[in-house]
Amino acid sequence: MATTTASTEAVTVADLRERFRGRVLEPGDEGYDDARAVWNGMIDRRPSVLAQCAGVADVMAAVDFGRENEMLVAVKGGGHHIAGDAVCDDGLVVDLSEMRSVRVDPDARTASVEPGATLADFDHEAQAFGLAAPLGINSTTGVAGLTLGGGFGWLTRKYGMTVDNLRSVDVVTADGELRHASEAENSDLFWGLRGGSGNFGVATSFEFDLHEVGPEVLAGPVVYSGDDAADVLRHVRDFNEEAPDEAAVWAILRKAPPLPFLPSDTHGVGVLIVVAFYAGDVDEGEQVLEPLRSYGDPIADAVGPHRYAEFQQSFDPLLTEGARNYWKSHNFDELPDEAIDTAVEYAAEIPSPLSEIFFAQLGGEMARVPDDATAYPHRDAEYAMNVHTRWEDPADDDRCIAWAREFYDAMAPHATGGLYVNFSGDEGQQALAYGENYDRLAELKAEYDPTNLFRMNRNVEPVD
Q1: Where would a tag sit more exposed on the chain, N or C end, judged by fewer CB atoms within 10 A?
Q2: What residue ranges are annotated as transmembrane (predicted)?
Q3: What angle do CA 331, 335, 339 make, to 5 degrees?
């Protein structure tokens, strides 16, 4: 907050409360500590003011309050906040987590979604009509943060990225004004919101195109011993090269979690989990995925028909809130043998039973969009890797982070040089995240946020 007397500060916060329909919290208020907590247990920050918005008018009032008092402003949605940007010390948090409405128009096949909604909220409403949009793979992920960073998941190869299915966004910009952004209105801002993270304002509503999906899909994991990981990963890579867009196959290296379909003697042992998804007819998917599932000597095969919304929640138990998280990311246009061998080598030394390395298959419809069509630039990536380091004891911080950074560096010679911004746990990687679109984003930032009010993000500084 700008330098001021205690009495002036109190009046200012009181004035905000008078203009607010939601709750305004300060240190010591009931609910303050719960409201400042985020999913990543490493983040422990204490804002001066937490504005829990109930609607757009509250968002406008909060942005005005932050700007007029020259406060550091963070924006909190409904999801994970890996890097911790959703909260700040001493400043203002614009908390959108109570704005969770999802309204589906089944005839138009569209959905209007508020910024506090999670994937579970979205899927619950859309699947009532057999509809879905390409989102992530964990139901506790926030729709807003996922979308603003680009967004991909099981449906991306068939229907494109999350931002490719975005029709419009309502956003409160740094001047406190509500703007509607679409291809027809404020199209430059709309371009920047599709992958430019939270740099341009506070999004208050997203409108998505929907597609017929499910309610039943063919999906699930095939689990192999870690001893077979290098061989099986090569087979997965070769299978993916010829697979149709309906198929998405991800590979995960980790210690076996205590999943009910795994023998108890494998729990805690190194494994490769190959997760397959087919966005089409279940019987057709059985034929397409057969060469994948029949390979080698798996420990378990749990691929089968699942309700789409339930499958989206299947990995939630592995991603509960409160653990300590540090993530690193690379993009790859291919997975050469050397990259596979390096990943398997480091997986054998994975620093905690909660950590994992995963390779998300991309391509398909996502790759048919030009690099400069949206702010998200990495359309040539065939895989995104997440070094998902996760542990519980603060005493393990240095060891776990060191392992993640060393592995990240070891994989760099095989990567494209780009990364997925939502998987970035470090500052200073903006050029890698935004690629050749960075300069245009900086010009756009100068137009809509020239003072860099919204800088608690993977920040793009405005050009002078």
Answers
A1: C
A2: none
A3: 95
What single-letter amino acid sits at 62?
Answer: A
Residue 302 DSSP code: -
CA–CA dist 24, 22 (Å, integer): 7
Name the burial class of residue 212, with classes exposed (0-12), middle (13-18) and buried (19+) by CB atoms within 10 angstroms of its CB. Answer: exposed
**Residue 446 near residue 463 (C-beta atoms within 8 A):** yes
456, 218 Cβ separation under 8 angstroms = no
pLDDT tops 80 at residue 232: yes
Describe the crossing of helices 6-18 and 56-68 by its angle, rounded to 10 degrees. Answer: 160
Q: Round to whole Å and give the CA distance between 397 and 231.
A: 32
Tokens 């080598």 belong to 345
Cα distance between residue 49 and residue 24, in whole Å: 7
Tokens of 117: 């909604």
Strands 247-255 and 211-212 come out as: unpaired
73-76 vs 92-95, strand pairing mode:
parallel
pLDDT in tens, 185-228: 999 999 999 999 999 999 999 999 999 998 999 999 999 999 99
What lies within 8 Å, CB to CB, of 107 at 6+ separation is none
Q: In angstroms, how far is CA 263 from the centroid of its own chain?
A: 31
DSSP annotation string for 319-359: S-TTSEEEEEEEEES---HHHHHHHHHHHTT-SSTT-EEEE
Give residue-wise pLDDT tens across range 72-97.
999 999 988 888 999 999 999 999 99
Six-digit token pair at 460?
Answer: 């793009």
Cβ atoms 375, 267 nearer than 8 A: no
Spatial contact of 152 and 136, defined as CB atoms under 8 Å apart: yes
Return the structure tokens found at 320. 């509960």
Tell me which DSSP letter residue 430 carries.
Answer: H
Q: Which helix (H) or strand (E) holds 62?
A: helix 56-68
Two structure tokens written together for 316: 């939630």
- Determine whether 161 is exposed, middle or buried from the number of CB atoms within 10 Å of its CB (0-12, 13-18, 19+): buried
Question: What is the spatial distance between Cα 100 and Cα 125, in angstroms, rounded to a whole number?
Answer: 12
- In angstroms, the CA 154 to CA 161 distance is 10
φ/ψ of residue 309, rounded to 5: -60, -35
